Amino acid sequence: MRFGLIWSEVGNGLRRNLSMVVSVVLVTFISLTFVGTAALLQLQIAQMKTYWYDRAQVAVYMCTETDNCPGGAATAQSVEAVKKQLESPEIAPYIQKFYFQDQKQGYEQFKQQFKGNQIADYVTPDMIPQTFWVNLKDPNRSDVLTETLSSSPGVQSVVDQRSYLDQIFNILNAASLTAIGIAILMLVAAVLLIATTIRLSAFSRRREIGIMRLVGASNRFIQTPFIIEGVIAALIGSILSCVVIWLLVQYFVRGFLGPRIPSINFVGMEQGWLVIPLLIVVGVVLAAASANFAIKRYLRV
């Protein structure tokens, strides 16, 4: 196979269909950028789940005067009884550590959390419940505390903080799935556009193809330039999307969000280098497959 002739045909094809090639580059670039963003978002969600679920606490809220508890507000005796249950041989093996927060401490924390919010003006210390904050050795065993303490005298409720985290992660997952859906649609558009570009390129060179067939050129020799054209266009789009992903991680996530939200461990280039090769592989494989299908289907070589 004469590689010089093949690359000459590739160059002619790219020049003749320059506008379509640019369209393929742009569609591939946009679609793979969505794919990369969705992949990074999934990695971020997994990383946050690992971090926050391990630190999520179970809150044992004691009754206040404003709660509709059968026995009224929690007494010193009911608080001590809950403490003894947490230290009992039945529950203690599940607990890593726990601490007690009285109403004054809870009120100070509430004021700090809602500083500048009008709601802080209407809340008084007696409305804040006394709370046991419990860290479990295995966060998945919060049911042990729920079943044991929920019916204890003076206990208003037992709440696993992971239920709040689940709501946040569900929103993030929805955003990630939306990005994936858009990326799939864009990838379909890129595949169709590549196939159309190859068909137009083949049609514009039908005379040359006929001559090559008459002189005994193999199907593979005729198909190769068209496949390379599609791969080159998609590869350029893939590289552009990789550059955008690198800029996104390096300057927006790590440079902008990281210093402003230090409580979250954001993804870095360690995760970025996992996504970037994936984008190039997806772009090249889809381009090669769609170009190969188009030339086989419409040229009957």
From TrEMBL:
Cellular localization per UniProt: Cell membrane
UniProt KW Transmembrane helix keyword: yes
Keyword line: Cell cycle, Cell division, Cell membrane, Membrane, Transmembrane, Transmembrane helix
Annotated ABC3 transporter permease C-terminal domain residues: 181-300
Coiled coil: none
Membrane topology of the entry: Multi-pass membrane protein
Gene Ontology cellular-component terms listed: plasma membrane
Stretches that traverse the bilayer: 21-45, 171-198, 226-253, 273-295
GO biological process: cell division
Pfam family, one: FtsX_ECD
Broad class of the protein's primary localization: membrane
Entries under InterPro entries matching the protein: ABC3_permease_C (IPR003838), FtsX (IPR004513), FtsX_actino (IPR047929), FtsX_ECD (IPR040690)
UniProt domain FtsX extracellular: residue ranges: 57-158
Protein role: Part of the ABC transporter FtsEX involved in cellular division.
NCBIfam families: FtsX_actino
Assembly and oligomerization: Forms a membrane-associated complex with FtsE.
Family as reported in the entry's similarity comment: Belongs to the ABC-4 integral membrane protein family. FtsX subfamily.
Protein name: Cell division protein FtsX
Native species: Leifsonia shinshuensis
